[in-house]
Write a structure and sequence with these properties.
heterodimer; A: 115 residues; 5 helices; 5 strands; B: 530 residues; alpha+beta; Phosphatase 2c, domain 1; Heat Shock Protein 90; 5-stranded antiparallel β-sheet
């Protein structure tokens, strides 16, 4: 079966927050991509993808983040990431430079405070 | 009266009415076939069956010969009224010599030009189930012999009809029961699942027992066994709803106790409900533990790797549907490789008039003795722990957490859906070899990258496969991912981060082309930085 990833959605003013939970791999990526793209509205200034509860992420998920980040940039919108410090996810993102390509925050509150 | 020789001949003809040859016919076919034979024996122009509709109590035309319109128009005759209604109400044959001077309710009989009629009740075990009548287009004085003959035919037909009804009913029950249980258990690497459902031995009614197995993600597997109290369509329908609702709540990601609480809350909004006992067990082979919620259900039996079985000592919570607002508790317990979990419903252990402990003890001994899960399921379903087939239905579910071999040698279909299973198996194996959580994570991602490449560049869709072999030697883990295609880094703007990831996570990454495919050899020393 394909992996289960839950996507929770919230909005604060101009910020859309997508909290992902579960394992993000090639089998679940299409579904997550659809949801993330739907969450961003025209009036949103930025999208925060909270990865703190993601327990698995590989290049399929990283490629999706880059793709969505690129789409947002083209519309003058930003992609922010929330990543638990010291987590394997943080290490994985660092290997492919995603931590330098997008603003990374240690918590959701940090991400909301940074504007 | 004594049958005359010609009557005896006719009776032999009648004998064929209840022949085995008719047994496999559907109800409609059976009735039509019976009418053909009856009309031939009596030399009548028309013949018809009206059966009592259990809901309304009316006689409804079910099959007709010569007056087919009766059936097409769905003629209904109230009990006690008209020709057929009188036969059914008075439970005796009625003869009408001249239709013009009789109380006939059904206009079709007159319209078809029937002059004389003879009808008899269809009796089964002292109750009327319908009426059989024959008609003549010319005036005919039906004799006493005709009447006896028709009654004989009706008696045989009644048995054949009942037989066909029971057969059809049993087929519906079996089909429904099959539809309510999982079509197939999921295939989960490193876990062996076996399940059996056996309907009650005494009646052909739908039972309320069920089992279910599904994956929750992150390598966790939900095992469910339950019993909606009672039998029949209502119990079956409620069972189907409970099973679906539990799945839905579980897949939403709620913790096990909350899943059962939500289920209990849902019960309060439903009418009618019945008490439901269930055990919901979330198995985590990777973490070598399970979480159990028991709502008034029999405790699971655990067979430890050394072969010893024990009845899990739990103080369960009340059944679902018993009280509102109950909070359910969950218990986490370790379960190592080589262990088996056995979940059953009452019918597997319960013998009337005996304490339940005795049945559970027999079940415990049986699961110690019978190490083959399929044989164990079969033995329990056959009533080995209850001294014969139970008059309750029985559901059995056995999950065997298989011990992983020293060297892993696995083969997978080249599909994205296989990646999750590979990941969970690999994690279990790596943990077993002392890899730290971070090391386990890194190696797993690297192997997935190599496997994802095999999936993406499978040489032929559908039939392709790749293999993953892993070994632990001299403190280092080596994993080889092989497929029959050639290595090709994914192209496109946001693709192709697999190779840098593998290099970043492992000590060495070698891509070895061979004559029949590509192998990716990944190495990492445990206890050292990548």
């Amino acid at each position: 079966m394909s992996s289960v990833v839950r996507v929770h959605e919230e909005r604060f003013d101009g910020t859309a927050i997508a909290t992902l939970e579960g394992e993000l791999d090639a089998s679940s990526i299409r579904d997550v991509a659809l949801k993330l793209r739907r969450i961003v509205e025209n009036q949103s200034l930025r999208l925060v993808v909270d990865l703190a509860q993601v327990v698995y992420l590989d290049s399929a998920g990283i490629n999706l983040l880059y793709a969505i980040g690129g789409e947002l940039r083209a519309r003058q919108q930003d992609l922010h990431l929330v990543v638990a410090p010291g987590s394997p996810i943080e290490r994985t993102l660092a290997i492919v430079g995603a931590n330098r390509a997008f603003p990374v925050h240690a918590s959701r509150d940090d991400a909301l405070a940074a504007s | 009266m004594r049958p005359t020789p010609s009557l005896e001949l006719a009776i032999r003809e009648l004998q064929r009415i209840s022949d085995a040859a008719l047994a496999s016919l559907s109800m409609d076919e059976l009735l039509r076939e019976l009418l053909e034979r009856i009309a031939a024996i009596l030399g009548s122009d028309t013949a018809a069956f009206l059966l009592i509709d259990e809901v309304s109590g009316d006689l409804v035309a079910q099959a007709a010969k010569g007056i087919e319109e009766e059936v097409e128009q769905g003629v209904r005759i109230p009990m006690g009224r008209g020709f057929a209604g009188r036969i059914a109400a008075e439970r005796r044959p009625v003869t009408i010599e001249d239709v013009d001077h009789a109380d006939i309710l059904n206009p079709i009989l007159r319209e078809k030009g029937i002059r004389s009629l003879l009808g008899v009740p269809l009796m089964l075990e002292g109750r009327v189930i319908g009426v059989l009548h024959v008609g003549s287009l010319v005036r005919r004085d039906f004799t006493e012999q005709d009447r006896d003959l028709l009654q004989l035919a009706a008696d045989r037909a009644a048995i054949a009809i009942e037989h066909a009804r029971l057969h059809a009913h049993r087929q519906v029950v079996e089909a429904m029961q099959r539809a309510l249980l999982p079509a197939a258990l999921p295939v989960i690497p490193g876990l062996h699942l076996t399940a059996t459902y056996r309907p009650a031995a005494v009646d052909a009614r739908i039972g309320g027992d069920w089992y279910d197995v599904f994956e929750l993600g992150r390598g966790k597997i939900a095992l469910v066994i339950g019993d909606v109290v009672g039998r029949g369509v209502e119990a079956g329908a409620l069972m189907a709803q409970v099973r679906t609702a539990l799945r839905a709540y579980a897949l939403e990601g709620h913790p096990p106790a909350q899943v059962v609480e939500l289920l209990n809350r849902m019960f309060a909004t439903m009418r009618p409900t019945k008490l439901t006992t269930l055990a919901y067990l979330v198995l985590d082979p990777e973490g070598a533990e399970f979480t159990l919620v028991s709502a008034g259900h029999l405790p699971p039996i655990i067979v430890d790797p050394d072969g010893r079985a024990r009845v899990l000592e739990i103080s369960g919570d009340p059944p679902v549907g018993a009280f509102r607002g109950v909070s359910f508790s969950e218990r986490r317990m370790p379960i190592g490789p080589g262990s088996r979990v056995l979940l059953v419903t009452d019918g597997a252990a319960e013998v009337r008039g005996e304490p339940l402990d005795a049945g559970l003890e027999r079940l415990r001994v049986l699961s110690e003795r019978e190490t083959n899960p399929r044989a164990l399921c079969g033995a329990i379903a056959a009533g080995s722990a209850t001294g014969g087939p139970s008059d309750d239905d029985v559901a059995v579910l056995v999950a065997h957490v298989q011990p992983l071999p020293e060297q892993l040698s696995t083969r997978w279909p080249a599909e994205a859906d296989a990646l999750g299973g590979l990941r969970h198996l690999l994690r279990r194996w790596l943990r077993g070899h002392g890899a730290s959580p971070d090391e386990t994570y890194d190696i797993t991602v690297a192997v997935q990258e190599a496997a994802a490449n095999a999936v993406e560049h499978a040489y032929a869709p559908g039939v392709a496969a790749f293999s993953v072999d892993a070994e632990h030697r001299d403190g280092a883990i080596t994993v080889v991912v092989s497929d029959r295609g050639s290595w090709r880094e994914a192209r496109g703007t946001n693709r192709g981060r697999g190779l840098p990831l593998m290099h970043g996570l492992m000590e060495s990454v070698e891509i070895v082309p061979s004559t029949d495919g590509t192998s990716v050899v990944l190495r990492r020393t445990l206890g050292a930085d990548a």
